[in-house]
Amino acid sequence: MGSMRTNNDLWTAAGFGVLAGMRSMTAPAFLTRELSRKPTRALKRALPGLTSKKVSQRLGLLALGELVGDKAPTTPPRIKLPPLTGRILSGAITGAAVSRDRKGAKLGFALIGAAAAIASSYAFYGIRRFVTHRLRVPDLAAGLIEDGAALFLGARLTRALR
User: pLDDT tens for residues 22-37?
Assistant: First the structure.
């Protein structure tokens, strides 16, 4: 039973990393929203900021701002160093947070989240460029489709935490 839970947690950590690669603030926004609803005492001790309703609300606002800002022509590509660094950190933090083992597994889960964020950043950058340049889909439409996919993934991942 323990290894099955760990296996599911690994996939959840990777999923949050993928989400961070798509939208860096959406991953922690979904995570904190879920964690702030029913924080356990152990979670409050281990991750006090991620179980806070205030932090959850602020991250939700940042995620909303990111969804809007993503469509601006002046927004740098997600694979440039500053945005990519933010996505890596987001993937690492959310990856570590889903580890139910509050001791040793955190670093491994953080690395899984970070690696998934890097892979996802490059994959979705490539997909978005292909869709807009080759298929001639307007960038706004491509961005909105990706937003929908990110929101769907975030909703599925939070269900996995319950």
Answer: 999 999 999 988 888 8
